[in-house]
Amino acid sequence: MKQRANTHPTLQQRLKQVKRQTHVARYQLQRKVKTALGPLDIQETRGISQVQGDVLFISYHANVRRSVEEVLRGEGYRYDVVNAEDAPRFLQLARYRLVIFDWTSRGYWRIFNDVRRHKKHIKIVVLVTSEARAQGTMKGGGYSYVWGEDFDPEQLRTCLRSALQLRHPVCALLKNGEPCNRSCVYDYEPGAVAQVT
Questions:
Q1: Enclosing domain of residue 29
Q2: How far apart are CA 45 and CA 108, in angstroms?
Q3: Which of 54, 57, 62, 71 has the maximum number of C-beta atoms within 10 A of its C-beta?
Q4: DSSP class of residue 59?
Q5: Is position 167 within any domain?
Q6: How far is CA 12 from the centre of its chain?
Q7: Does 31 share its domain with 104?
Q8: Are 125 and 65 members of one domain?
Q9: Count of domains in the chain?
Q10: Minimal CA–CA distance to 141: which of 167, 119, 164, 165?
């Protein structure tokens, strides 16, 4: 008895294509379910009342975390500190006004772009280590950037005040490639004397 070929080549190709599409669809569905359940996970682990919801700081670096938290606490801002994996869930749960990205956070460009697309009211400050990242931050729609692991706390304070209290749309100096001179806050602080640099 003569054996038949298992499957017609065209049918095999279509089956492969369907398997690929099924795999992609399953992955996308799992991501959507994870995203949808994210706020519930936070509620169970942290409690909804523990989410501060003013400034979100995304970082892995312990010493950078401490330095940024010190500035945020000192300025009296309510803030949450998370890693990049948890950031999308926190962004769903609270109406943040500012996100600070630590340059070491893996995958932060994806979150950066997501915030720019879907949460345009949120301003973004990035701790950067290179001129390319600084330019990328500003071109990508970031509010401002601060230099390095040993950043200047005064510059971060300036960014916070300018973004959250004075509500400037973007740091005009950094956008034009000029260094921060705190003029954005000196122009609005009564009795302040500008520093000459």
A1: 9-44
A2: 23
A3: 57
A4: -
A5: yes
A6: 44
A7: no
A8: yes
A9: 2
A10: 119
Provide the 10 A C-beta neighbour count for residue 151: 17
Beta bridge partners of 57: 81, 100
Residue 40 shares a structural domain with residue 58 = no
Q: Residue 196: which residues within 8 A CB-CB, separation 6 or more?
A: none
Work out the angle between the directed axes of helices 62-75 and 153-160 (0-180°, nearest 10): 50
**Burial of 46 from C-beta contacts in 10 A (0-12 / 13-18 / 19+):** middle
96-114 confidence digits (pLDDT tens): 899 999 876 666 788 888 8
Does residue 197 form part of some domain?
no
Task: Dihedral sign for Cα 119, 102, 66, 68, please.
Answer: negative
Tell me how long the chain is: 197
Instruction: Classify residue 193: in a domain, yes or no.
Output: no
Residue-wise pLDDT tens digits, 26-57: 988 887 777 666 566 666 666 555 556 789 99
d(Cα 132, Cα 130) in Å, to the nearest integer? 5
The reported pTM is: 0.70
Q: For position 90, which CATH number holds? A: 3.40.50.2300
Q: Give the pLDDT of residue 191.
A: 47
Instruction: Report phi then psi at 196, rounded to 5.
Output: -90, 125
| Same domain, yes or no: 179 and 96 | yes
Q: How far apart are CA 90 and CA 115, in angstroms?
A: 12
